[in-house]
Amino acid sequence: MATDAYSWHFTLDVEEFLDRAGGFLRSEPALHTVQLTVTEMLRTTGITAYGEDAPYFGRLVSGDGTVRATVMHTPPFQLQLTALPREAADTLAIRLVKDDRAVPSVFGPAEAAAEFAAVWERRTNTIARLAMSQRLYRLGTLTPPEPAPPGRARAAGTDDSKLIAQWYDEFCTDVGAETRDPESWTESRLAQGGVMLWETPDGTPVSMASASPEVAGQARVTTVYTPAPLRGRGYAGCATAEASRAALESGTKEVLLFTDLANPTSNGLYQRLGYRPVADFATYDFGDATTKG
To answer: How far apart are CA 243 and CA 151, in angstroms?
Structure first.
């Protein structure tokens, strides 16, 4: 089908977006995990879950009314893309420029993100920089670390809130990610029962792993963190394994996670736990318009 048969449609209403594009997102829940989990958070906790600026949502529709791709932005975080039909990145960039939308960065399947970054450079006179290459993994057969370090896993509770908020903030600093308010992130994760701690035999927490709520049969392990002085002892592997196990036991069909491809240690660890590659993703940051030309 010719590219000019496609058109972009935008809304500020997450319910309208899911009503129109939810079927498309659920058709491949692993590849669309980020948009599924983000929209679920917005739907259940409020439209300001990620910041005060209003998010917006878009869908690419073909001439017969079929949704072919989606895009969403929850400022100040990245523009989130799904895979795009050929040349749809250019029509998206044109529309975002016309609507005076600021785009600080973009995240999506590696090919789509690279194509959008190239056309955004051309359309806005900015410079795009590859900020991170990531790989999406899906859990096959869970294989916990053996032998495990001394200690045990437990679900975090409200008494752990201060520590979890601190670790979340430190995690975001380590990976260079935009940070949600640590207290609100912690509150929402604990309310969902989505934080697993690994603690030493004396009851001292030494690592954490969280999991997003199940939506469309998938959940994603995120925010795996061990303080720097405690790394290299197997704590993160145990915390990740237990967060994965908890997700499976809740009835989730697919347990997913992303890794930074520049970190061979984490990629090796997750594969030993039973995670298998699904697809590669990328994040590009954009400079100011005055930095080029």
So the answer is: 15
Dihedral over Cα of 74, 79, 81, 86: its sign: positive
Block residue for tokens 């058709």: 27
User: Model-level pTM?
Assistant: 0.91
Angle at 281 between CA 106 and CA 206, to 5 degrees: 100
Beta bridge partners of 9: 59
Residue in the structure block whose two tokens are 């496609």: 6
Range 259-288 average pLDDT: 94
Does residue 1 carry a pLDDT above 50? no
Rounded to 5 degrees, what are φ and ψ at 71? -145, 150
CA distance 208 to 205: 8
User: Which of 74, 64, 99, 96 shows the shortest CA–CA distance to 17?
Assistant: 74
Tell me which amino acid residue 173 is: T
Assess whether pLDDT exceeds 50 at residue 293.
Answer: no
Name the helix (H) or strand (E) containing 96. helix 88-98
Per-residue pLDDT for 4 more than 70? no
CB-side neighbour CA atoms (13 Å) of 160: 24
Give the 3-state DSSP-derived string for 206-223, with helices as H, strands as E and coil as C.
EEEEEECCCECCEEEEEE
∠ Cα 286 10 132 (to 5°) = 30
Work out the end-to-end distance of the chain between its first and last CA atoms, rounded to an integer number of angstroms: 36
Pairing of strands 67-73, 152-155: unpaired
Tens of pLDDT along 112-167? 999 999 999 999 999 999 999 999 999 999 999 999 999 999 999 999 999 999 99
Yes or no: say if 116 and 84 are a contact pair by the CB < 8 Å rule: yes
* CA–CA–CA angle 168, 190, 220 (5° rounding): 70
The confidence score (pLDDT) of residue 246 equals 93
